[in-house]
Write a sequence for this structure.
């Protein structure tokens, strides 16, 4: 059983509905067990069924679908984790 953690602490500012939508999206696309913690979404799957790189691509697709791609980005965190970070927008 592998476990990948996605830090969504910065994404939570967009609202609870978005987080529920993200959990549903990941369940649908990965067929893995998705747990929701306070500041994280945990993807549990059988022996490397969901590679980290694939999860990163799915998160990017989700951000694109919800039109948040310009405001957030997905970066690798510590081992077995990804972080959805807010983009620093250049202010004029």
């Amino acid at each position: 059983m592998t476990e990948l953690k996605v830090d969504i602490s910065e994404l939570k500012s967009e609202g609870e509905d978005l987080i529920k939508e993200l959990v549903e999206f990941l369940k649908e696309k990965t067929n893995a067990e998705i747990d929701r913690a306070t500041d994280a979404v945990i993807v549990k799957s059988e022996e490397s069924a969901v590679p980290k790189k694939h999860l990163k691509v799915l998160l990017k697709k989700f951000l694109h679908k919800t039109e948040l791609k310009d405001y957030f980005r997905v970066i690798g965190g510590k081992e077995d984790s990804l972080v959805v970070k807010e983009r620093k927008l250049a202010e004029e």
